[in-house]
Amino acid sequence: MKRALVSVSDKTGLVEFVKGLVEQGFEIISTGGTKKALEEAGLSPIGISDVTGFPEIMDGRVKTLHPKVHGALLCVRDNPSHVAQLKELGIEYIDLVCVNLYPFKETVQKLGVSHEEIIENIDIGGPSMLRSASKNYKSVTVVCDPKDYEKVLEEIKEHGDTTPETRELLAAKVFRHTARYDAMIADYLTKKTNNEFPESLTITFDKVQDLRYGENPHQKAAFYKGMNPQYSLANAKQLHGKELSYNNIQDGNAAIEILKDFEGQCAAVGLKHMNPCGVGIGDSIEAAWDKAYEADPVSIFGGIVAFNGKVEASLAEKLSKIFLEIIIAPEFSDEALEILTRKKNIRLMQLDTTLSVNTALKYTNVNDGLLVQEMDQHQIKKEDLRCVTNRKPTPEEIKQLLFGWKVVKHVKSNAIVLVKENMTIGVGAGQMNRVGSAKIAIEQAGEKAQGSVMASDAFFPMPDTVEEAIKAGVTAIIQPGGSIRDQDSIDVCNEHGIAMVYTGIRHFKH
User: Which residue numbers are catalytic?
Assistant: First the structure.
């Protein structure tokens, strides 16, 4: 008679699976809560202590760590010496292991959970059995995911055992499963000990979905989420439209990152190709949208929009008149949904964009490597500004300068943003020289540039950008300062009565 060892925390589909094994002639060995659940379902599993001849001790901390378990799993069955040792020691084979692990991730995420409770949810025996069984997958079937129960039962019914190919696939899955589990534990303890950049980095992600393709149709792609996808499109609820694409997810992420800098304000972001094409703030979400749209009604075509407030019917009517890929908001009224869902393909994503979150680290992959840095979450306040020109900015100019500084941080370097009346009017992104970005922003702003303010993500190495700003009618500038030729730009500003303030902080975004 074949034997199966069953010990699971997630009991989804457990009883049906074990009943199927029993029908195929398996003897069932079980532990603790799993054994109790099976007995309540009318099954008669053998207790682990009856197999090992040793009691479960230390509140169940030690129960399966025994040679009669691991010898039964690790024996190479075509090795006569191994088989002889098993026979001499009175150890019987275990042919199938069904184990999933203590809910460590769920425990960590519980409100008010203690460190002691978290530690108690580090599984030891489970990963050990899974690894032993997986190492010997040529002879042992190992199941860690309830989704695989049906396939395993079907093969046993058809062939008397699982196929070698299936056992190999299941073993690979187990090692991914235990690696993920260990990575979560390592992540928790690393953060608890404030070791931000350890000697080795273990991070884990779970697949959300396969994507139709990557940046281009010839590239394969998938979307994965991390351990805490609170402020992430991975945690958004899709209310309508076709599935998100690779580029949609990139752009959506960029949009919600911008919204984080407008906590407590009604803000709207229009975004295209990872750069904001229009950002507005107002007394209401609709007023903010009016400004964001007016900022660049051409570029927003085919773009995405994100809000940090509820979308009501009147705003939905305006949005419905434009071709948009995605709308992201914390809430949509029933009337707004009725209006927007008339468009078959538009993606409506519900995500709480009002959350106050601190995403600690940013990961960027390079060839065979990973760059890790803190997220750029630096905020500038009025009192942080240092005026370096003869003319000081007016209170209204200061308000607009701070708004522009929040936006320019999210524009690809070299970045120049023109702002007026709580809205962007010109965005110059990703040029190889700063004056080129300034010319793009100024051209986009047109006549609106008169009386606007300018934000630059980094210092001016020469006064040419300031000269372009003055010709366009810019009245105040915000920039980090720090160039060895700062005085040249200051002199030009003083000559034309322009106010300029330094932040002392740059916002490169590559």
Answer: 135, 273
